[in-house]
Amino acid sequence: MNATTHRFTAPVTRGANASAFAGHPGYRRMFAPDQLTLGIFLPLRFFSGDMAVLIGQAQQVSEIDRLGFAAAWVRDVPLFDPAFGDAGQVFDPFTYLAYLAAQTRQIALVTGSAIFSLRHPIDLAKSAATLDCLSGGRLVMGIATGDRAVEFPAYGLAHAERGERFAQSVDYFRQLLAASPANIQSPLGRLSEAQLLPKPVTGRIPLIVTGSSQQSMAWLGEQADGWLTFPDATHNILGPRRLAEKIRAWRAAIPGGGFRPHMTNEWIDLADDPNFPRTPLQGGYVLKTGRNGLIDLLGEWRDAGVNHAALGIQMAQRPVAQIIQELAEEVLPHFPALAGPEPLMQQW
């Protein structure tokens, strides 16, 4: 995570504690104090140029929903950079989540993470509010500045200014989604005689900030509805201990000390042997482990203050269906999705 910070114009809006999302089906399925839930990151198989690896993925997500996982996550990768080498799930995140919303009923739908520094907040808000309505309030948004420098000149934007633009976009986005028409005066645009429709079905869409996103810890404490960070090392207890220190520092910066959730993720290669030791692969990018080591890691994360873990299996060697079934039968019972309000109307 880039630690560079900037001083920006004071925002009009603020982040919110859990009480503001008491009626939000997606948020409540994923988050509660002292609890950890599980999500699955897409794609389920790594895309290396052949779209055939994505065939049937929506049906597998429908099964993930039926089995009781808390969330399905998608990436936001506008342009494929061969030097970066990862196209995510290829499809646009909002379009694809709308497609998945029609084939699922309970699972939270999560962006990990929407690039607020590249997309204009009107377009972001229109897509997000539409998806939130179509899914009955299941959208949770991870948001970020973007980590692929090649995309910024393609949009006509300066990569060095992504942090400032990110903070401005978050504020503009929230004003657009406010219940009453907003008089918006932002470096990104001015609005006084129109409003954005539709509105979120429960009044707000959670914005989970990824890493520092070029902001200070004070900004993250005040503005982030939740925080998504890299997990640190996952093959032993030292990584979760360092992660716990980071989470405590962020929560100390939250005004009033109310609960806001923390999330992390890991790419796993789930071994056949349930006792296979936690072993870092590809320079620590992938963790090979048996299910018992994974259960231990998730418990360590929960103790550290993590409230949701997104697991990616795109690098795994075993068949997708086999991994998902083992996770559902052996791991998910320890970290179940949470009870909360049912999704609202989805019969559009």
From TrEMBL:
It holds the Pfam family Bac_luciferase. Residues 39-234 form the Luciferase-like domain. The keyword Flavoprotein applies. Gene3D superfamilies: Luciferase-like domain (3.20.20.30). The keyword Secreted does not apply. GO terms for molecular function: monooxygenase activity; oxidoreductase activity, acting on paired donors, with incorporation or reduction of molecular oxygen. Keywords: Flavoprotein, FMN, Monooxygenase, Oxidoreductase. This is LLM class flavin-dependent oxidoreductase. It comes from Pseudomonas alkylphenolica.
